[in-house]
């Protein structure tokens, strides 16, 4: 009999694995709506939807292994990272989806959110003031107008699966929608700066690397408090706090 394995669980959602089936439980049906629509549209390998019975979505597992994990060395080859970059480029070149995207913020709104989060991080003693100040300065480069692309929206490296040097599947599409292409590239390489050149080689077009670095700081600053509050540890070696320290 297959065991039930908890892949991730917090107050907003949970994902369970039973054999080769993943069960995603989410009280926010808008997230599931986006995931189902994105899976039908994107030009990259994805899981297959088996059934949907709110609040549960059942999808197939994808073959291969994750590109890596935040906080640990990646077992994948440079060619596999390049293949991931090429897959992301195909996604970004696809026609924009018909929805506006979740939590998409313009430059002014993003700057205001970031400033409020930075104030909270310092006021509550979560991070040192000099670390926050320096990364807020770095993050400024990401706060600018951009041309929307079809983005994954949460392209963590453990959402990309590879077999050898080929991408076999990209999972977790609930944040997909029009967005900043460089945010996807930054999320994919967060904590794995050594593989940025491999990803960009596969992506195949010039990008502003300073903006990617800015997104590393911005995403980490916005994520640290949420991670602590939901039972994760962003101060673990190689994770978000180390990403921020690297900018010092």
Give a written overview of the molecule:
The chain is α+β, with helices and mostly antiparallel strands and 248 residues long. It has one domain: Aminoglycoside phosphotransferase (APH), C-terminal lobe (Aminoglycoside 3'-phosphotransferase, Chain: A, domain 2, Alpha-Beta Complex), CATH 3.90.1200.10. The mean pLDDT is 94. GO terms for molecular function: transferase activity. This is Aminoglycoside phosphotransferase family protein. Keywords: Transferase.
Radius of gyration: 18 Å
**How many strand elements?**
10
Rounded to the nearest angstrom, the distance between the terminal CA atoms is 51 Å
Average pLDDT metric: 94
What profile does the largest beta sheet have? 5 strands, antiparallel
Q: If strands are numbered along the chain, what order do they take across the biggest sheet?
A: 1-2-3-5-4
The sequence of SSEs as H and E is: EEEHEEEHHHEEEEHHHH
Number of self-contained structural domains: 1
CATH class: Alpha Beta
List the total number of helices.
8
General form: globular
Helical proportion, percent range: 40-55%
Question: What is the CATH topology descriptor?
Answer: Aminoglycoside 3'-phosphotransferase, Chain: A, domain 2
The CATH H-level homologous superfamily: Aminoglycoside phosphotransferase (APH), C-terminal lobe
């Amino acid at each position: 009999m297959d065991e039930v394995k908890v892949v991730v669980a917090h107050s907003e959602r949970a994902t369970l694995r039973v054999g080769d089936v993943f069960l995603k439980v989410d009280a926010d049906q808008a997230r599931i709506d986006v995931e189902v629509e994105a899976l039908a549209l994107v030009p990259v390998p994805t899981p297959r939807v088996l059934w949907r019975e709110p609040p549960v979505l059942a999808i197939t597992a994808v073959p291969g292994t994750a590109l890596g994990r935040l906080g640990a060395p990646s077992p994948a080859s440079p060619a596999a990272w390049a293949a991931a970059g090429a897959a992301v480029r195909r996604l970004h070149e696809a026609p924009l989806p018909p929805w506006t995207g979740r939590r998409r913020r313009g430059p002014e709104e993003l700057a205001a959110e970031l400033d409020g989060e930075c104030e909270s991080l310092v006021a509550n003693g979560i991070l040192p003031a000099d670390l926050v100040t320096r990364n807020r300065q770095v993050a400024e480069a990401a706060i600018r107008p951009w041309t929307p692309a079809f983005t994954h929206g949460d392209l963590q490296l453990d959402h990309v699966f590879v077999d050898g040097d080929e991408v076999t599947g990209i999972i977790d599409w609930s944040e997909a929608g029009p967005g900043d292409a460089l945010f996807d590239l930054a999320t994919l390489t967060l904590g794995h700066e050594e593989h940025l050149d491999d990803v960009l080689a596969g992506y195949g077009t010039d990008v502003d690397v300073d903006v990617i670095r800015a997104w590393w700081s911005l995403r980490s600053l916005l994520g640290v408090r949420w991670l602590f509050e939901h039972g994760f540890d962003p101060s673990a070696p190689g994770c978000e706090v180390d990403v921020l320290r690297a900018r010092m």
